[in-house]
Design a protein that fits this description.
Subcellular location: Cell inner membrane
Oligomer: single chain
Family: Belongs to the GSP F family.
Number of helices: 17
Radius of gyration: 31 Å
Distance between the termini: 115 Å
Strand content: under 5%
Structural class: mainly alpha
Largest sheet: 3 strands, antiparallel
Keywords: Cell inner membrane, Cell membrane, Membrane, Transmembrane, Transmembrane helix
Protein name: Type II secretion system F family protein
Order of helices and strands: EEHEHHHHHHHHHHHHHHHH
InterPro entries: GspF/PilC, T2SS_GspF_dom, T2SS_GspF_sf
Shape: elongated
């Protein structure tokens, strides 16, 4: 009977390797499933495998260097910080080599030999050593560099479990490039408004510190001169801020620190994540990004043969917003009870009707992965529209605020001058 070599994830997430005797690949997968193992790779065992296993102990003549490598990779001092562009480059390079048919360790070794990757070569070395010693790729990423982040590591774990690591890494690279492009566009779009704000603040300071005091002295020195009510209010407010500005600065800094401490508290994270979804312009963007990520991840996992329930669990682990994760927990619980995915989404009440309808069509046609991917493309377009809408609103909003602020002060001053002239003529 043929033998199959496998690498699989156990119930506790640990990697297990070995061989299983089965008539064909389908039977081998069934036997692994009965053992509670989730296969990552499965291939025919070659006749050279015993020879390799027999000679493998000789390759362990590096205990000192291996322990040194593991200590360096797990110690805080050994963590490598990467720029966003370096993370994107690492992701693109690795996904391209995996798509070309290379296994993970040879692909990482090939990255080590590249001349132009710089610090990424050190990252590839550390990750390869951990992967070679049996550590999951997602865990190796987390140990080697904090720059990859929890979302990146969760998606990598999903790719390992489904055998679609190259596809998920490619989509993650696209997401990171889109995010970097958005930040670049935002910075460029904010340059002109920033100059307007600085100019408006400068004009306001000139009005408050020079022109209004001079106008006040002129009006009060004139016979029958009397300051209009709005000018009096502005003078009182200005004098108050001039006397107590440091108090307001301390209160502002203290409020910012208190809010940060409250937000970072694990007990308050669900409340803060729920509040972020209700913010006027940022809320729809966060929701659309979640739908795109959730649908793309589900499409990749289900399309690569992963069971629906397991795909939902991995997609939930890749969701950082705790409020949205709670919604996925409800979906997982109901799907685990035998309910259809679309019905479970309807019961939670947190998924748009269009998304649910597209999932229902996929369930009826038996091509749920294609429906999920089409839904992801649709919501990706909606996300781009939301971002473009926000970018288009920034400039007019700042212009209107500046015009109202400076125009109001100019109107008050001109009105005060005309009132003074009228009093003199009277």
């Amino acid at each position: 009977m043929p033998a199959f070599s496998y690498k699989a994830l156990g119930a506790n997430g640990a990697v297990q390797t070995g061989q299983v005797d089965a008539g064909d690949r389908t039977e081998a997968l069934r036997l692994l499933d009965r053992k509670g193992l989730q296969p990552v790779s499965l291939s025919h065992a070659t006749s050279e495998a015993p020879k390799k296993a027999a000679t493998k102990p000789k390759a362990k003549a590096r205990p000192v260097s291996r322990s040194t490598e593991q200590a360096e990779s797990s110690s805080p001092d050994g963590e490598l910080k990467l720029k966003r562009q370096e993370v994107v480059l690492f992701t693109e390079e690795l996904s391209d080599m995996l798509s070309a048919g290379l296994q993970l360790e040879p692909a990482l070794r090939a990255m080590e030999n590249r001349q132009e990757l710089g610090s990424l070569k050190d990252v590839a070395v550390k990750i390869r050593h951990l992967v070679r010693d049996g550590t999951n790729f997602s865990i190796a990423l987390k140990r080697v560099s904090p720059s990859f982040g929890p979302l990146y590591c969760s998606l990598a774990a999903a790719g390992e479990a489904s055998g679609a690591l190259d596809t998920i890494l490619k989509r993650q690279a696209h997401y990171l490039k889109t995010l970097a492009e958005l930040q670049s566009r935002l910075i460029l779009a904010m340059i002109y408004p920033a100059f307007l704000v600085l100019a408006g603040v400068g004009v306001t300071i000139v009005f408050v510190t020079i022109l209004i005091p001079q106008l006040t002295q002129l009006i009060e020195s004139a016979p029958g001169g009397k300051l209009p009510g709005p000018i009096q209010l502005m003078v009182v407010v200005t004098d108050h801020f001039a006397a107590f500005w440091y108090v307001y600065l301390i209160l502002l800094v203290a409020g910012g620190l208190f809010f940060k401490a409250w937000k970072d508290n694990e007990e308050n994270r669900p409340t803060w994540d729920r509040m972020k979804l209700t913010l006027p312009m940022a809320g729809p963007v966060i929701s659309s990004r979640f739908y795109v990520q959730f649908l793309e991840t589900m499409a990749n996992l289900v399309g690569n043969g992963l069971p629906l329930l397991r795909a939902l669990e991995l997609s939930r682990d890749a969701t950082q917003n705790l409020s949205l994760r709670a919604s996925l927990n409800e979906v997982i619980e109901q799907v685990g009870d035998g309910r259809a995915l679309s019905k479970a989404m309807v019961r939670t009440g947190n998924f748009p009707a269009l998304l649910v309808d597209m999932v229902a069509v996929g369930e009826q046609t038996g091509k749920i992965d294609m429906s999920l991917r089409r839904a992801a493309e649709r919501y990706d377009k909606e996300l781009n529209k939301d971002l473009n809408r926000i970018m288009a609103l920034i400039m007019p909003t700042i212009l209107i605020v500046m015009a109202l602020m400076i125009g109001t002060m100019a109107y008050l001053m001109i009105n005060a001058i005309f009132q003074t002239i009228s009093n003199l003529n009277g």
